[in-house]
Amino acid sequence: MEFLKEEVREKEKNFTIKAATVVMFFCALVEILFVTGRIFNFLLMPVIISIIVAVVFLSGFILYRLCKDNIFSRVMPYIVTTLTVVALTVALGYMNPAFRIPFFLVYFYIILHPAVILGGQYAIFTISIVDMSYFLMILLTRSRYPYIDIQTELIRLLLLTIIALLLTLEFDKNLKRIHEIRKVAGRAEDGDLTGRINEVEEVDDISFLAKSFNRMLQGETNLVRLIIEIVGSLTDMSEQIASTANEMAASSSEIVSTTQRMTEGINEQFNELDKTISTGKTLSEVSFDVVSNVKKVEEFSVGVSDSASNAISQSDVVTNNIELIGKRYSNLTTLMTKMQVISSTINKIVNTIDSIAEKINILSLNASIEAARAGEYGRGFSIVADEVKKLADSSQDSASEIGRIIKEMMESIETVTESTEEVNTAISDGSVVVKSTADSLRDISNKVLELNSAIKNIKEMISKEEDEITNIIQQVESSHGISKENSAAAEEILASIQQQSAATEEFSATSQELVSVSNKLHEMVKRFKVNETD
């Protein structure tokens, strides 16, 4: 399992960090011991030994930093174990054999510590490294300590190896049992409750722990099965409740909407009845005003009818007068025509007189000439001729005056004639207009009579309508009271339904929350595996 591999990796890395720290501390302590022994001449070590210890220290430091920087390999625990054994063996190699036995116990710690933490394979590797390094150390330091009994050292090493192997096997067996418990616990952590620990017939804490853990898993399995059954039933019930709540909420919303529309309709009807009552009263007032105005119109139409009758009578008189004036102007026109004829005749006579006067003047002139010739004898004739000439001149002047007067009179007659024609035209037009006006007045009189009849009908209809309006207003006022009561009742019903709808919506929300909780609970228990076939 991945999490177990990750845990093993973390354990190996932590072991490497701690072991590297111990190596660095031990190497530093050895270097201090070597330096102190060299200074005080009680422990003289070759320089190569100090170099080896320094290299081991540096290697431990490098491993420490790599692990801290999360750069790790599974060979690092083997390396740090080897470095620890090498450092200890080098230190023991230059130590008096009489003092090696207490430090010899450090080998047990170096062997058993990996066995407890990492497992038997690390302990076996450490045992082999310890055996080889210690055996080489005995061989290399034999010349330095010739009195050492190699057989004793080998027996000591063999006993160390046997005891370490026995302890390692015991630790490894317990560690495997612990790993098995951890593995089953990891599966249970992931929801798999089907795993069980193999129970061995031993009386120790690990066996008791395994049995207790198995019983706990069985109890958890039974509990989860019961929870799964309950969750299934709860999910079905919550879904049914949610469905019912949603239907109730939808029905409540529809009822609220319908009631609101009904209330609005009742309120609108109530308002419309108010308007109808107001309109009816206004209409009643208007009908009263109409009746009053109709009466005025009736009175006015009677006056108009009388005025039209008087105007017709007067127009008849005007028509007769216009006809009389027309006849008189016709006579005047005839008289003017006759005067024009007489004036023309007089003008001709005047012209004749003028011509005669000119001839008389000529004759008088001839007579004067002849009288002058006759001399004394013609003097009387000359006087007569002068008188004749004066008479002719006077006649000619009178004729000229008469001609001038006749001319002016003819011009006046022509002007009067033209004016008379215009007056005749105006009289004709006026006669037509007066006749048309008389006809219009007769039509107006007839229409006024019809209007009077219609006004009487309108008065009767308005009187009937006024009675109907009064009855309608009374009925509407009665309906208005009922509508007001209905509106108040509808408002109370709407308030009650809205409260019920709010409670239904709250119940629906609660049911939805219950569904959500049951679904979450179902998702939570679904991760548990309680049967091998799941």
Question: Please, could you describe this protein's structure?
Answer:
The chain is built from eight helices and no strands. The chain is elongated. The relative contact order is 0.07. The model has no long low-confidence stretch (mean pLDDT 72). By secondary structure, it is an all-alpha fold. It has helices spanning 2-40, 47-68, 76-93, 100-117, 120-140, 150-189, 205-374, 379-526. It has two domains: 2-190, no CATH class; 253-524, Orthogonal Bundle (Helix Hairpins), CATH 1.10.287. Residues 244-515 form the Methyl-accepting transducer domain.
Topology:
Blueprint: H1 2-40, H2 47-68, H3 76-93, H4 100-117, H5 120-140, H6 150-189, H7 205-374, H8 379-526
Overall strand count: 0
What's the mean pLDDT score? Answer: 72
> Any idea what the shape is?
elongated
* Relative helix content: over 70%
CATH hierarchy, class of the largest domain = Mainly Alpha
Uncertain runs are none
**Backbone CA Rg:** 78 Å
SSE order, one letter for each helix or strand: HHHHHHHH
- Stated plainly, the CATH topology of the largest domain is called Helix Hairpins
Integer count of domains: 2
- Identify the CATH architecture of the largest domain: Orthogonal Bundle
